[in-house]
């Protein structure tokens, strides 16, 4: 019985010794910090108590001019005056360029004046020329036509005007060929008064271009003209 007990204990010891696990080494993925290689830096917080600069007045001493106040004002006046002069010059140039662009072109200025040879117009005839895009009537009147124009009672006319006020030389009548009613072109040597007749609305003008009958309110307009020499007429 004692031998069996001794054998059982021997078997248990052998089993326990064979089942003892070998020591296991733990693995870690965290790098090991080398304290010897670490560099430490100092940090100073800007929010320290008692160091607020909200109530501190900045020093502008380095911006203060060392010159006298009078010299500084002189410089300021000079700059203001100089800038004002430059601005005025720029405004003048702008307005001048605008007016030049808005003025009449060369071809229009060339038509501003028209010269007519009166020797080519026989007595008792009309000539129509173009001036500034408008027709101009030139009538070489006879002595009978001049007398007829002068014997009219001016006070009875719708637009009272003497014949002498409409001509510079009695034998030459110069008028714009535009009806004063709606801008039509009257027909010469027609109408009830031997002058001009507008067929559009029935306006009659006499041999002096004065309205005598019809809806036109005014006489035919007389443009600016001159006789620079005998036999020459310049309109404009």
TrEMBL record:
Q: What is its EC number?
A: 7.1.1.8
List residues of the Rieske domain. 166-234
Q: How does it sit in the membrane?
A: Single-pass membrane protein
Q: Where in the cell is it found?
A: Mitochondrion inner membrane
Source organism, top-level taxon: Eukaryota
Chief location category: mitochondrion
Q: Which UniProt keywords apply?
A: 2Fe-2S, Disulfide bond, Electron transport, Iron, Iron-sulfur, Membrane, Metal-binding, Mitochondrion, Mitochondrion inner membrane, Respiratory chain, Transit peptide, Translocase, Transmembrane, Transmembrane helix, Transport
Database matches in SUPFAM superfamilies: ISP domain, ISP transmembrane anchor
Known InterPro entries for this protein?
bc1_Rieske_TM_sf (IPR037008), Rieske_2Fe-2S (IPR017941), Rieske_2Fe-2S_sf (IPR036922), Rieske_Fe-S_prot (IPR014349), Rieske_Fe-S_prot_C (IPR005805), Rieske_TM (IPR004192), Ubiquinol_cyt_c_Rdtase_Fe-S-su (IPR006317)
Cofactor: how bound: Binds 1 [2Fe-2S] cluster per subunit.
Which CDD domains would you find in this protein's record? Rieske_cytochrome_bc1
Q: Which GO terms describe its molecular function?
A: 2 iron, 2 sulfur cluster binding; metal ion binding; quinol-cytochrome-c reductase activity
Recorded catalytic activity of this chain's protein: a quinol + 2 Fe(III)-[cytochrome c](out) = a quinone + 2 Fe(II)-[cytochrome c](out) + 2 H(+)(out)
One Pfam family cited in the UniProt record for this chain: UCR_TM
Q: Which cofactor does it need?
A: [2Fe-2S] cluster
What EC class is this? translocase
A GO cellular component annotated for this chain's UniProt record is: mitochondrial inner membrane
Please state which protein family the record places this protein in. Belongs to the Rieske iron-sulfur protein family.
**What NCBIfam families is this protein classified in?**
Rieske_proteo
Other remarks in the entry: The Rieske protein is a high potential 2Fe-2S protein.
- The name under which this protein is listed is Cytochrome b-c1 complex subunit Rieske, mitochondrial
């Amino acid at each position: 019985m004692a031998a069996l007990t001794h054998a059982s204990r021997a078997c248990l010891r052998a089993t326990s010794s064979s089942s003892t696990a070998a020591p296991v080494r733990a693995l870690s993925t965290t790098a090991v910090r080398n304290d010897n290689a670490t560099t430490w830096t100092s940090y100073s917080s800007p929010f320290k108590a008692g160091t607020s600069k909200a109530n501190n007045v900045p020093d502008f001493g380095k911006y203060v001019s060392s010159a006298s106040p009078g010299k500084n004002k002189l410089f300021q006046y000079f700059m203001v005056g100089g800038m004002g002069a430059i601005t005025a010059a720029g405004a003048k140039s702008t307005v001048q360029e605008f007016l030049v662009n808005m003025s009449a072109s060369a071809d229009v200025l060339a038509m501003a004046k028209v010269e007519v040879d009166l020797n080519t117009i026989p007595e008792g005839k009309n000539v129509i020329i173009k001036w500034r895009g408008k027709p101009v009537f030139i009538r070489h009147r006879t002595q009978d036509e001049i007398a007829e124009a002068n014997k009219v009672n001016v006070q009875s006319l719708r637009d009272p005007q003497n014949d002498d006020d409409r001509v510079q030389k009695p034998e030459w009548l110069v008028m714009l060929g535009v009806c004063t009613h709606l801008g039509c072109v009257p027909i010469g040597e027609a109408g009830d008064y031997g002058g001009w007749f507008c067929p559009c609305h029935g306006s009659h003008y006499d041999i002096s271009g004065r309205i005598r009958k019809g809806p036109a309110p005014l006489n035919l307009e007389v443009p600016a003209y001159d006789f620079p020499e005998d036999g020459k007429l310049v309109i404009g």
